Amino acid sequence: MGFETATVGYMLLGLGGLALILALVSAIVGDLFDVALDVLPDGALSSTTIAATVAGFGFAGAAAAFGIDDAGLGTVIAIGLAGAIAGWLLAFGAHRVFRGQEQEDGATDLGTVVGRVVTVIEAPATPGGLGTALVPFLGQNRRMGFRSDEQLAVGDDVVIDAVLSTHQIKVSRHSG
């Protein structure tokens, strides 16, 4: 390994480390670059995707510089660019997945589920008894106990009338 390749390798390794620091700062400070260009999809230029791109370039380039005997500068840069593309694709894909998990109204308060239609998964034996329903909340289905004044069966659609506690709701039969 020549002096030039070793120097480039250490520089790329340092660049990768710097990008990890940028990723950490971006997680704390927020997306600084996300509003740079409105023509790109949401998250394409977020500080997280930029940090992942730089880190991918730095670490893949350093791995090529130190892992391949007699690697030329062009080879190291080409592998670094491939790492940059992979880093951007992974970070952008993760960004889209996380954005897809958000609640459509962005609510974090259980009171926002009142009025939603849910399905009974465990029915009470008698009216007024305790049953279970799956309630979509913050991108996940949450099992919540319910009480109802009506006789319900498994599979019935019900409307949430009130939130009684963090794990219990009051429902009535859906007439739709």
What does this structure look like?
This protein is α+β, with helices and mostly antiparallel strands and 176 residues long. It folds into two domains: 3-100, no CATH class; 110-173, OB fold (Dihydrolipoamide Acetyltransferase, E2P), CATH 2.40.50. It contains three helices and five strands, in the order αααβββββ. It has a five-stranded mixed beta barrel. Helix 1 packs antiparallel against helix 2 and helix 2 (47-67) packs antiparallel against helix 3. The chain starts with a helix and ends with a strand. The mean pLDDT is 79.
Please tell me what the overall shape is: rod-shaped
Task: Compute the CA-based radius of gyration.
Answer: 26 Å
Mean pLDDT across all residues, rounded?
79
Strand content: 15-25%
Give the count of structural domains.
2
Strand order of the largest sheet: 1-2-3-5-4
By DSSP, the count of extended strands is 5
Q: How are helices and strands ordered from N to C?
A: HHHEEEEE
Major beta-sheet overview: 5 strands, mixed, barrel
Given as residue ranges, the uncertain stretches (5+ residues, pLDDT < 50) are none
Structural class based on helices, strands and sheet pairing = alpha+beta
How many helices? The count is: 3
Terminal-residue CA separation? 73 Å
